[in-house]
Amino acid sequence: MMKSAKGFAAGDVVILHSGLVKTSTDLRTCTIVSVLPSADRGERQYRVQFDNENFERRVTESDIETLKEAAVREVSVAAAGSGNSWLKPLRSKTGRSLSR
Description:
The N and C termini lie far apart (about 75 Å). It is built from 1 helix and 5 strands, in the order βββββα. The radius of gyration is 22 Å and the shape is elongated. By secondary structure, the protein is α+β, with helices and mostly antiparallel strands. The protein has a domain of about 70 residues: SH3 type barrels (Roll). Helices cover about 15% and strands about 25% of the residues. Strands 4-3-2-1-5 form a 5-stranded antiparallel beta sheet. β2 and β3 form a beta hairpin.
């Protein structure tokens, strides 16, 4: 099952965005267990579960993405990072002393 205009459905496999769970990156994939009522801001909520956990988590739609969306994002991040860094090394002149 894939994301539709109405959101995700029970049984969909999704990826939790980085930083939301303190687990290794391969554990970010979870399954939607149920669809919950919308949050106060009107954002859809879901109950999800990781395969290796015996409890469920409540997440909002902005916290998750499909496997396909994650793959596209990873490719675009990798492509953007392939150029030169915007950060230039610190240059300091040596051999000069400050006169007082």
